[in-house]
Amino acid sequence: MSTVVVGMSGGVDSSVAALLLKREGHRVIGLFMKNWEDDDDGEYCSTREDLVDAASAADVVGVEFEAVNFAAEYKDRVFADFLREYSAGRTPNPDVLCNAEIKFKAFLDHAIKLGAEKIATGHYAGVRERDGRTELLRAADTSKDQSYFLHRLNQSQLARVMFPLAELKKPEVRRIAAEAGLANHAKKDSTGICFIGERPFREFLNRYLPKKPGPMLDENGRVVGEHIGLMFYTIGQRKGVGIGGTKTGSGEPWFVARKDMAANSLTIVQGHEHPWLKAAHLAAENASWVAGVPPEASSAYGAKTRYRQSDAACHFSGSPNGAFGLAFDAPQWAVAPGQSAVVYEGDVCLGGGIITASN
User: Structure pTM?
Assistant: First the structure.
């Protein structure tokens, strides 16, 4: 059997991934990645607790274990991009870049130095060899599928990856963990951006980027309030807008609809179904395709413009410079620049890019 280095985060998913590979007879090495160091004091960031949980799980499973610090790589490759995007008024998804640059690049390089033929993680996704290429697939547990976050992985990365949880549902993963005596079998799933943890997002972001308040406008251009800085808002946002729907206008809730960086103005509209919140087309750039080449122009694709979303039927049109467009059969709600548009053909994730505009 081969040597497999498993990214162990301290959570139940990666612990069970290591357990299953060990049971298959592989030589398994657990690797804990520390990706963030700034103010890692335990109040909001659980790195130390997670390291203890990962080491404990490795001990129970009976595999080798080590920790590695990728904080410098993370700050250069992921966090710097995160700040640039927010400064430009977009809403980035750092987990997508973290997977491509850290978990399946820096981690993979380190694992190869340890003698690994393969790496594995506790992601809910699958891989399949077909016609000489490696395909990225949805997981059997569609409610937990994470292929959206993995869409920037390339052929050389996927050829070395194993996803042991591909065919498992989350309750089964927890059952396997409990029966194996893993103390983290009931541990709560981590949520949110890894370097922010549970801390207040606005407070965190304001430490790195200066506030720049400006006018908050309604759809007619009338000033209805003041925003605290465009970086703190995303298209479709309702919570935190700061204007009570029942006190103004139609009585319906207010949603962020547009951001004008040049004028430093934020436009909000009332009602979830307001037409300014819906887009029939989007443009994206910085594309990354799993197969190494873009899909063919077709109407047989589905796409997600955010993680928790069903596939939306669409037509794809590409260009050689890494830009592409999607035309949806039905308008999509709150398409936000900076987020990822990810294209699927059935259960196969083809790749995607960063949304730049929609209409």
Answer: 0.93
